[in-house]
Design goal:
The structure is a single chain. Strand 7, helix 6 and strand 8 form a beta-alpha-beta unit. This protein has a 7-stranded mixed sheet with strand order 6-5-2-1-7-8-9, sandwiched between helices. It contains 6 helices and 9 strands; from the N terminus they run βααβββαβαβαβαββ. It is elongated, with a radius of gyration of 20 Å.
Length: 219
C-alpha cells in the first residue's frame, strides 16, 4: 500500500516567499497556481511508486473588500478594486480548478486604523523625514488574519486521529505549528516542513521528521 501524503500550505507565507524567490513585482494568478502545484507535486516525485497525494490544503483569507479613507490624502480607497483583491480572487479560482486542492479560508479582521510602513517609521525617528513629507503610499490599512492558524492545527489533528494519511508536509515558516506537529508525530505521522528555503529557528528541528524545500533556491 502506498504512503498517503497530505500537503498543507500557509498561503500568505507561500505568496510572499514565491514573490521573493522569483523576484516578481506582481503575481499572475494562473502562473502562481501552477507554481504552487508543481512545488507540491515535487514532494511526491522522490518515491512516486511508494507515495500518493491525499490532498493539498491551501489556507488563506478572502481579500478585504470595504472602503476606507487614506489619512494622508483623504482619498477614498475601494479595496475591492485593488490589484491585490483581484489577484486573490482569481488565484483562488485557479486553485479550485486543480485536482485534489481544498481551500481553507479564514477572515481578515479590520482593526479600523492605518499604520506607517516600518521603513517610514524608521526615517521619521531618525529625522530623515518629516510629517509633511508623508504621502498616501507611506501607510497601510491594518488587517490581521483570523482562523487560519487554528484551521491548520485542526486539520493536522484530524488527519492524524482519523489515520487518513501517513505523512504531512507543511509549507510554512511559522513556529505556531509546533503543538500540532508534536501531536501528529505522537500519532505516528511522518511530519515534514518545507520553509521554501527560509531559515528556521534551531529548536524547531526537534519537532519535525525532516526539512526539505522543493522550489528554486533564492540567489
Amino acid at each position: 500500500m502506498k504512503k498517503r501524503t497530505a500537503i498543507l500550505v500557509d498561503g500568505d507565507f507561500f505568496l510572499k516567499r514565491y514573490k521573493f524567490i522569483f523576484r516578481l513585482k506582481t503575481l499572475d494568478p494562473q502562473k502562481t497556481a501552477k507554481g504552487l502545484w508543481d512545488m507540491c507535486i515535487k514532494h511526491l516525485e522522490q518515491s512516486p511508486n511508494e507515495t500518493e497525494l491525499y490532498r493539498i490544503f491551501y489556507y488563506d483569507c478572502l481579500p478585504y473588500s470595504k472602503k476606507q479613507h487614506n489619512p494622508i490624502s483623504g482619498k477614498s480607497v475601494d479595496f475591492s478594486k485593488t490589484s491585490q483583491y483581484n489577484f486573490r480572487i482569481q488565484f483562488f479560482e485557479e486553485l479550485k480548478k486543480r485536482r485534489k486542492v481544498a481551500l481553507r479560508l479564514g477572515v481578515l479582521e479590520d482593526r479600523g486604523r492605518w499604520n506607517l510602513k516600518p521603513g517610514i517609521t524608521k526615517k521619521l525617528l531618525q529625522r530623515k523625514l518629516s510629517i509633511e513629507d508623508l504621502t498616501e503610499k507611506d501607510v497601510t490599512f491594518d488587517l490581521i488574519q483570523k482562523r487560519v492558524d487554528i484551521k491548520i492545527g485542526m486539520d493536522i489533528a484530524s488527519l492524524a486521529l482519523k489515520k487518513l494519511v501517513d505523512q504531512i508536509i507543511l509549507i510554512s515558516g511559522d513556529s505556531d505549528f509546533v503543538s500540532a506537529a508534536k501531536f501528529a508525530r505522537r500519532e505516528g505521522i511522518d511530519f515534514i516542513l518545507d520553509p521554501m528555503w527560509n531559515p528556521i529557528k534551531p529548536h524547531l528541528f526537534e519537532h519535525i521528521d525532516g526539512l526539505i524545500s522543493k522550489i528554486k533556491r533564492p540567489a
